[in-house]
Amino acid sequence: MGVAISGDGRTALTASFDNSVGVWDLASDEVRFLEGQEAAVKAVVFMGSDAAASAGDDFAIELWDLTTGKARARLTGHKGQVKSLAVSPDGKLLASAGWDGSIGLWDIAAAENIAMMRGHDGAVNDVAFSVDGSLLYSASADGTVRVWDVAARAEKRVLVRHGFGVTVLAVRDGWLAYGAVDGGTRVIDLATDKVLADLTLERRPILAFAMTPAGDRLAVGDGQGYVMTVDTHSWQIVTDYRLSAHGPVWALAFTPDGTSLLAGGVDDAAYLWPVENRLEAPIMATVERGFHREPGTMSNGERQFMRKCSICHSLTGEGVRRAGPTLKGLFGRKAGSVPGYLYSEAVGGLGLTWSDHTVDELFDQGPAVFIPGTKMPNQRIVRPEDRRDLIEYLRNNT
């Protein structure tokens, strides 16, 4: 759900729904996983070559020492998921976009909050510093892009009123590009506030931006699995192809030389490929997942599992990374007892045993009611017959 590449081009970070951050050696493809976030990780960013930050659905930001693989600090203050992170040009400040409508400013060295800035009327989806670091731009579900004075910790003005939610930003000297839920992809002249270019195609929503370090190429990923790259001097589309056979392109990052792109989506892998290689067929998410199958091809119990459980939980637990613990041996097992899984305190101290009754109550009440404080998505299965069919499926397959 998030990707980043180090300034020297040697290392990549991947943020995943399995609550982890992957640290990849791009020369060997070797990986180690950073464990510490308590829910899906949505954003990663390098802070130099030996440090990084991650954030996600547990409302927190982790600062990582990449040499040791250990968390240096945990930053808290948001009351909703943290969707995006940005590091100031001087490397001293970290900005965070929260779905609670706030923008966090953090002192990286001290690992302390400087300000929680508010002004948006909806979730904040992205943040980006100006080239000189004096300004911060924010994109929100309220349909606006706002400009903040970093030194004053205050809003300066509303730059864009798009109407539909704005999802992603890219900023360079003289211009700002933004993407939106309705597929709108526009470039604003920061001197005049005029639309410098309209790159909107018939694909929505826009979910990912990436810009080369030189600022000469912008990549745009959307909800229909396409990636286009644009020359930022002429504002002409250079390449446009479908990268993902199933699902969206959630994350993009250029290598420092601008020749390759790293992408993430619903696949369990991230993909690095040459930008100029115009794909003849999608390379990402080419295998149909269970949650993509037609409902008529499954029993009702399997359908409930695929809709409600399969993203976070495996049935076997054999070498499969997921956001939640394996369901193998579920019935008769104490909640919070799978070895090696990092449970929230709410689940760890629950003291119940999973049975037909407790699984039924979990989805009848919803996880947030049945287990207050859990990080599980708060989804219910309202119809008793659907819960019964799910329980039967789980009994037969766990």
Can you tell me about this structure?
The protein is mostly beta strands and 398 residues long. The protein has two domains: 2-274, YVTN repeat-like/Quinoprotein amine dehydrogenase (Methylamine Dehydrogenase, Chain H, 7 Propeller); 290-397, Cytochrome c-like domain (Cytochrome Bc1 Complex, Chain D, domain 2, Orthogonal Bundle), CATH 1.10.760.10. The chain contains five helices and 27 strands. The chain has helices at residues 300-308, 345-348, 356-365, 367-370, 384-397; strands at 2-5, 11-15, 20-25, 31-35, 41-46, 51-56, 61-65, 70-75, 82-87, 93-98, 102-107, 112-118, 124-129, 135-140, 144-149, 154-161, 166-172, 175-180, 185-189, 195-198, 206-211, 217-222, 226-231, 236-242, 249-254, 260-265, 271-274. Strand 9 (82-87) and strand 10 (93-98) form a beta hairpin. The longest helix is centred in the last third of the chain and has 14 residues, at 384-397. It starts with a strand and ends with a helix.
Topology:
Blueprint: E1 2-5, E2 11-15, E3 20-25, E4 31-35, E5 41-46, E6 51-56, E7 61-65, E8 70-75, E9 82-87, E10 93-98, E11 102-107, E12 112-118, E13 124-129, E14 135-140, E15 144-149, E16 154-161, E17 166-172, E18 175-180, E19 185-189, E20 195-198, E21 206-211, E22 217-222, E23 226-231, E24 236-242, E25 249-254, E26 260-265, E27 271-274, H1 300-308, H2 345-348, H3 356-365, H4 367-370, H5 384-397
Antiparallel strand pairs: 1-2, 2-3, 3-4, 5-6, 6-7, 7-8, 9-10, 10-11, 11-12, 13-14, 14-15, 15-16, 17-18, 18-19, 19-20, 21-22, 22-23, 23-24, 25-26, 26-27
